Every structure is written in C-alpha cells, then in structure tokens.
Here is the input.
Amino acid sequence: MNHFSHMLGSEGCGTASHFSRRTLLSAGAGLAWLTPLSRLLAASAEQKSSNGRPKSVIVLWMQGGPSQLETWDPHPNKKIGGDTKAIDTSVKGLKIANTMPLSAELMDQVSLLRCVTSKEGDHERATYNMQTGYRPDPTLIHPAIGAVLCHELSAEGVEIPRHVSIFPEAFSARGGFLGNQYDAFKMFDPSGPLPDLPKRVSDVRFEARLKDLDVLEASFARGRRSDLEARKTLHREMVNRATTMMTSQQIAAFNINDVPEETKQQFGDTPFGRGCLCATQLIETGVRCVQVTLGGWDTHANNHDLQSARAATLDAGLSATIKRLKEQDRFEDTIILCGGEFGRTPNINPAAGRDHWPHGFSVVLTGGGIRRGTVLGETDPDGTKITPETKGAVRVEDIHATIHSALGINFHKDYQTPIGRPMAISQGMPIKQILAEI
Here is the structure.
C-alpha cells in the first residue's frame, strides 16, 4: 500500500494589497444606495470571530456515493481506472480526474483525504454515519454536525434559521437528542420563493390567531404531565422564531435573483450551483451550517457517464464557492466539507457500473483552520481494501473531530441525552496533518 502526504503553503486573504468586500460594505454601510441585503452584509461584516477560528460550515453533500476514481483519485491506464483520465493540478505531482478542471486549479487551497474508511455500506446507515460521526444506534438519534454547531456556537442577531438544508434528501440533517429545534430548515431551488413565508391573512387577523394559540396551549396543558410546560415553552420559542423570520430583512440572504448574471454563471446554471451561491450568502449573514445536496451518484450502471456529468456540476459549484468566499473575505471564517456517504468499487460490474465501497474513498476539506495544498493517503492501484489500521487511513469520526477542533469546539465534551446517558460530541481524533496552526 502506497501512501504519501504532500503539503504546501498558501496565500491568504487580508494582505495589505487585498481590498475586501467586507471593507467596501463596512465603509458604505450608511449609504442609502445599499440594498437591504447589502446593509445586512455590511452589518454582519463586524461579526468576524475574535479568536481567529472559523465559525460556519458548508457541507456539499454528494448523495449516493461519488466515485473517488472519477473525481479525486483517478487511476488512468489501470484495471480499476475505467475510462477516466487524469489532469495536473495547482499542487505539483497531484493529479485529479479530468472531469474537474476548475477544481484542479484550486487544489493548493484544500486538503484532500484519499483514504477515508467506514464500516457502513448501506446508503441510509452510511449517510447517518457521515453526517453525525456515529454509526446508527437504535436507542437514540445523534445530532448532525450542523446541529452541534448551532448548539455550541452563538449566533446573536441571526433572525433566520442557523442550520439550513438546500435540496434535502431522505436522510436530512437532524438535531437528534439535542432537540428538533436544531433540525435543518429545508428549502429547495433558491431561484424560487421560500414556501409558506408570506402571511395569507391581514396583520390584524394574524395577531388574533397568535393570541388564540396562547389560549389553546394553556387549555391543552391543564391536567397533563408536569414536563409539558417545558415543551410548551419550546413550542412558543419556535413560533416566535418563525414569526420573526417572516418579517426579517435577513430573508434577503435566501434571494439569489438579484445577483449579477455573471456571478450566477460561475456556479453553473444548475440547481446545485444556485444552492452553493445561496449558501455563501447565508454564511455571510451569520448562518452556522448550510448543507447543499447534489444527488445522482448511485451509479450501479453506466458509471462513467453518470459520474462524469455529476462531477462537472460539482466542479462548477465547489470552485465558485471557494472563490466567492474569498471575495467576501469569508473563506477563513468557513469550513467546506465535500463528500458523500461512501465511494464506489474499484471493480466495474457487468452493467458498466460501480457498487458501494466504504473501504477507501475521498473527502475534501478546505477553509479556515484547514491546511492548504495537502494530500493524505492514496488508494492502491489494485483496489485493495483500506482498513482503519492501515497507515494513513482516516475514519469518519476523525473528520468530525477535525472540524470541531478547527472551530474551537471541545469534541470530548459530553452531552446528556434525554435518558441521562453521557454522549461525547465526537469519538474521533483530529487529523493533525491537515489542521492549520491558529
């Protein structure tokens, strides 16, 4: 098994010659010509983390299992390589698939993990594992990474949901034992309006309905369990959040229709690209975690063509997200995680497809707290399974511990579940080779 680690430095934003969007917006925050979103972003510019750590995460979720061999870890001219060719990248000696030319130019900005291992080969179980850092447990539901962020990191002044899922799939991110209030807010194509947001009755009637709700809740609570008061308080808090969101100017962060056409085209004229663009606006507003899903990776037949098409969509969205965050001077404030629940088999099946493969697949991390131009591990040209004991192997829980560590979250911290069971935020260990010094 051949493994290597390649590390390079990188140029960061904020140099003397760098004139950031944050500087522009802050300077013009009081000018009347700024749009509501611009005023909002100018105000949010002052929210930069005082400890120099990132404070938000964007998860680009490749539902179905992206093939490492058609994206980040090609093996051209090998039996396992199929029809995929390799191209040079901005990191000397590193090649990725020719399906991702835009990302190839930015590999000096990311850490590439080529040897991630999991014990879950079923879509639902593997998705749960990747999104929570835990394998499924019939006795409880673990919180997704976005739920942990919202629980651990404050977001004072944010009037819209702090945990958002764009194009939610069947196994959307959950609050788990932390509570439903940490579930992801679900939305679809940002080019359309947010559902159920406008009031359908007059303001007077709407206020009357809220008062009627108070009466109904008080009546329902009488004579019932003593812990119902806490549930009632939580329900009232959620109602208040919803009504606040309905009138908040921060809703403008969901709107991408006013973005210049040139910017939108950089993300690709696809729903996923529009989701990535929306994610950058939400992060700039103070949202803690945005997950954008790109499905269609479950290629048990016609693998090369289907994976190549998906990779092209990902290539535009990922590369534009990195560039946009840099333009916003938000790259150091944000961690981007790009991956799926597992990879695809080295062997190509009789239907020209690849099947599920949790024994060595690729995940990309970039942004604040993550070392740049780093490659960790390499899959074997013959397709040998990687095990957690293999040198250079990375476990799913280690990825979670790494992100929490970069964010300054104590991943050893124990939560108390509703039944009094202590549960650590993560059972993994940070991947020191890809953590930058802060």
